[in-house]
Amino acid sequence: MPHRLALSAVLASLFVVSPVARAHEWYPLECCSGEDCGPADTVVRHDDGSYLVTAHGMSLVIPEDYYWRPSPDGQVHVCVRQISGIGLMVVCAFRGPGA
């Protein structure tokens, strides 16, 4: 009986997944190294076609000609890294249609 209870607990825990974990399942490896990627908190499109994106408490401008990858959930996501001597760098950005 204790084995069944332990097995049930393990199986139940497999179904309890946070939204961040689910999102990281689809981020390409070249974009994400753990916590680099996440959904944008705010997105503002400027008249020049660039985007001001806030994610992870950081705000970044993504230029109009940046290569956006398709977002499976239709939302804007960014992968940002702190690069020594450079500062913040957008590694990958994802958006859905109309974003």
Structural class category? alpha+beta
Q: Judging from the principal axes of the Cα atoms, what is the shape?
A: globular
Radius of gyration: 18 Å
Q: Biggest sheet: strands side by side, in what order? A: 1-6-7-5
Number of helices: 2
Q: How many strands in all?
A: 7
Uncertain regions spanning at least 5 consecutive residues: 1-23
- Helices and strands, in N-to-C order? HHEEEEEEE
Residues in helix, %: 10-25%
Sheet of most strands: 4 strands, mixed
Q: Strand share of the residues?
A: 35-45%
How far the N terminus sits from the C terminus, by CA atoms, comes to: 52 Å
State mean pLDDT (0 to 100 scale): 78
